[in-house]
Specification:
binds adenosine-5'-diphosphate; four-stranded antiparallel β-sheet; 4 helices; globular; alpha+beta
């Protein structure tokens, strides 16, 4: 049993909603435990300045931001190295799912704002962003679902909280996954594990992604399917 009462293979409580910002082309809200993210997508739209355009494909630009009030100590609004790294990680996780070659000379802009942070914000951002891309009507191979799994002390666990991440020793493995294609689009590892433990962690992460996928689809259907 974990400190919040979850089993080792249990996700935190999830809320997902599509279409939360009327002025965006696509948007979504994704909350997992006490980590909440809102994502807004603009585009595909003509990219300016023109020298940044790619005649072969759309340029996907991702911007990860943490609001000043998302953590106990006020977070500086200016993007630091962490935000820049996470923006790149989110772009890499999302790019394989988008048919970017269908929109040459354009940009697709994905903004994610962390409203509350209790670990797992990059994964929550990927989940929200992929729903927002679908909401924007951008042709995609699949949704991308993401969650971290890892090892806390000697236990392999799913969906770590900040308290668990701060436990020593702890290994955190964020995983982004396209369930239909069975493609892992992002995997990062912070800590130390054996190859056998890593296999177990990846299996558990994918199991979590499959559950999240159903919740993402349900949120999209809620907006688009009239019963
Ligand atoms: P992720 O949120 O994807 O797990 P990190 O491992 O970098 O990414 O961060 C883990 C957690 O640490 C965040 O979710 C947040 O709860 C906390 N955190 C990150 N940056 C800050 C910060 N500047 N101030 C306070 N807490 C932070």
């Amino acid at each position: 049993m974990r400190s919040d009462g979850r089993k080792n293979d249990e996700l935190r409580k999830i809320e997902a909603k599509v279409g939360v910002i009327s002025s965006a082309d696509g948007s979504a809200y994704f909350k997992i435990g006490n980590t909440a993210v809102v994502a807004a997508v603009y585009g595909p739209r003509e990219l300016h300045p023109k020298h940044l355009q790619d005649p072969e494909k759309s340029v996907l630009r991702c911007y990860y931001n943490m609001t000043t009030f998302s953590v106990p100590e006020r977070k500086s609004p200016s993007p630091g190295r962490r935000e820049i790294e996470l923006s790149t990680a989110i772009k890499r996780a999302l790019e394989p799912t988008i048919f970017i070659e269908e929109f040459p000379r354009t940009a697709i802009d994905v903004y994610t704002y962390v409203l509350e942070a209790d670990a797992g914000t990059r994964c929550a951002s990927i989940c929200a962003a992929s729903m927002a891309l679908a909401d924007a009507g951008i042709p995609m191979r699949d949704l991308v679902s993401a969650v971290a799994a890892g090892k806390v002390k000697d236990q392999i666990v799913l969906d770590l909280t900040k308290e668990e991440e701060d436990t020593e020793p702890c290994t955190d493995v964020p995983i982004a996954y396209m369930p239909n294609k069975k493609w892992i689009t992002l995997i990062q590892l912070d800590g130390e594990v054996t190859a056998e433990e890593l296999r177990e962690i990846i299996k558990l992460g994918i199991k979590g992604c499959l559950q999240i996928y159903e919740i993402q689809k349900k949120a999209l259907k809620k907006k688009y399917v009239r019963i």
